[in-house]
Amino acid sequence: METIVKGETNIKRTVSKTGFTHPGIGCTAATLKTCRDAILKGISPWADYFEGLRRTTYSRLDKKLAMVERITNDDEIYLFAQDAQCAWTHAVIYAVSGDDAYLKIPLAIFEHYAAVKNFFPKPFCDCHIKLGKYVYTLCAALDILRTVTGETLVAAVAENCTAPICHKALYYNGYFMNQHTYAIIGVLAHAVLTDDRALYEQMVEWSMVNASSNSWARSGAIASQMRIVEPEANLQLVEMGRDQPHAAGNIDNLLMMTRTMELQGTLVDSVTGQVSKQGVPPSRFLDDRLFKCAALYMQYNLGHDIKWFPTYAETESERNIAADAQLDEYVKAYYSREGNVLYMAPSFSGRGNLIMNGVAAAYFACPKDLLEKEEYCYIKKAYEEFLPFHVQRARSGEFIETLHNYAFDFWISACTPFSAPDENKARRVLAPVVEIYESDYDLSCFANVSCALSLAAKKQRGAVLAKIDECRQSFCFQSDGGVFEISACSDGVARITLFDAEGHTLFGTEYLCDTKGIAQAFVFKLPKGLCKMEIDSLGAKRTEFFSLRKLSDMELPQTEADYMRKGERRQDITEYRVLKISGRNKVVKENIHIFTSDDDAFAFALRGYDENEEYEQKSLQSLKEAMRCGDAAQVWAAVKSLRPLNPRLDDGSIAFDKVCTSSVGSDISKYTDSSNLTFTSIYDDERAVKFDFGDGFAFCAERFAVGERSGFPSRAANVMFSASNDGKSWTALTDMTKKMCGMQFLTSKSSEPYRYIKVHMQKTADWPICFDLGEIRMFGRRISK
Predict the structure, then answer these.
(1) Which of 376, 375, 382, 378 is nearest to 359 (CA)?
(2) Nearest-angstrom CA–CA distance, 19 and 192
(3) Using CA atoms, how far apart are residues 311 and 307, in angstroms rounded to an integer?
(4) How large is the angle between the packed helices 178-193 and 244-263, nearest 10 degrees?
(5) Model-level pTM?
(6) Over the stretch 213-266, which tens digit does the pLDDT of each residue have?
(7) I need a labelling partner for 145 at 20 to 30 A (CA). Which of 87, 325, 504, 736 fits?
(8) CA-to-CA distance for 502 and 483, rounded, in angstroms?
């Protein structure tokens, strides 16, 4: 069969003078060989994940690289992450295919980051949360190709790229819960890459016990995060008290780290967690606590109750952090001395999400004798229940496309197959991309070919048909700009995505389900230049009759989102579906309302008007003028434009996000969405959010309420409300809040009308790194001046 496999690779196992096995970050030469052999035979899970890996944009041989010169902000972290993921993807494809073409991009990336100067000048807010995984990914890719690159290039990348990040931002053992492992996972990988035995053994202990931490309760180490809680010696995964996605991060991070430790042959003391020749595997430290807590997490997120006792999330530090000259200003600012904070119960926030990589990673990492025991059975239950989702995420590449994807690489060191060899699957997974440069192909002639096809048309034509089984099809074409229609039939789940010449998606992915033989149309607005349409059969046995054509001016969809017109048929209201070009270059369906009678039209138009509601005078005047004109469409437009003077939330407070502008722009809605997981971090010296009720309006306050961002009470202490009519001179309306724990209510000292309201922090000696509120409520009424 035609295949991308060109031969054996040059990846060899080596052992350094300090005893490190290379490659040895997430995989070894032996596990890569197991992975390769399984893929060549079409055995899952390896074949599924490799198929998905090839579907990602990172696998493209013409992938545009970021080649970041310096990291000083989040955007540059993102670009660095793109390069790291691309290097790892090509390294793994090379390990399977032996095709030297997949060495070009990783080598270019390594050579660039080996030559950078002053690459990471200083840390900045929350950089430790984001950078650790990408340092890990880059180090893993470099370690896979170590025998190809040579030691000189390895040393240069470490010295100029990964070392500055590790030592300035990641090397600290006081970060909060999963943030601790988000950071040190990068240091662990750097230690393996550079054969630094002392640093490596310190990261092992920091992962197990972290005995030198200043706050044992906030630590992300196994002993603290996966804690025995009195009074009944109950095992609890502590961050489940904050929310479930963050709790999952602990499992994912520690599964990745302990896997690398065990690939290095590391054992740890069963009590101290230090590296020991007479110990236990790190993943089985403290009597399999990592797997027990993974099962506990999955039990709760499968919908079962668990026992829980209130437990600490913070403890008061005995050490004066502010006076410690050994810590740089970034770490000092980050460290919280909030005091004793309790998680009273498991959080419902994010409960039920079990399609994360950690479910599959835990299943394949957990010793099989444990999976059959009652205490661990929920790992197996979660994996089996969500297996169809895992397979879809694997085959589609979704598991890797999101960069914040911990446990993304577990499959390259898995050892347990869940399927028999499948020659057809192997053929599909390893099929090369076939480029076709004719403009008038009827691709139905490839109906029995399971391979990725690409049509590079010399000129734009009408319909292009395809009947291709269980694979991805890519159609490349030159667009002269405009609106295009794509039609498709499918007997299962398939997706359609469009890319520009550089591989950037032009809109959100569209999904087909079983269309029952009826063609389903999608309409998109495309730019000029080369475009690529990718049609991916995820769960479909056959996806067929795809067509692509440009719509003429006469066929262009209506641009009105929702409008009224008179019709010919005798009926009260008929709703028709029309297409609309939205701001995201995507055409969506909207309503036209058609009716015959003017009375029906006016009745319909006025449905949104409440005579008992108080409206802003300007919008109410527009409605009155429309009614005088006697045009139902104008009336309807005016009704839709009515602005209540005091729109209310369910609790009776004013929906200020509907009537205010603010210093946080559109993020204002995060404060009224009843979720303390949405927030906007304020870093300026004032630590304030300001609200403007507008010229000609004012707010008369009765009371206020604030709630902290979930898991960060220290960033919402000493909060108060003030008011102003000029935006310069402020009058205090409330006292300060004390320690935050849920919504705190504050009575207003004045009911006088004010145009401006601000919520702000009072500056204290332990001024936090930023100001984070999850929710804000304002009780009172807005008036017209």
Answers:
(1) 382
(2) 10
(3) 12
(4) 20
(5) 0.67
(6) 877 888 999 999 999 987 778 999 999 988 888 999 999 999 999 999 999 999
(7) 504
(8) 20
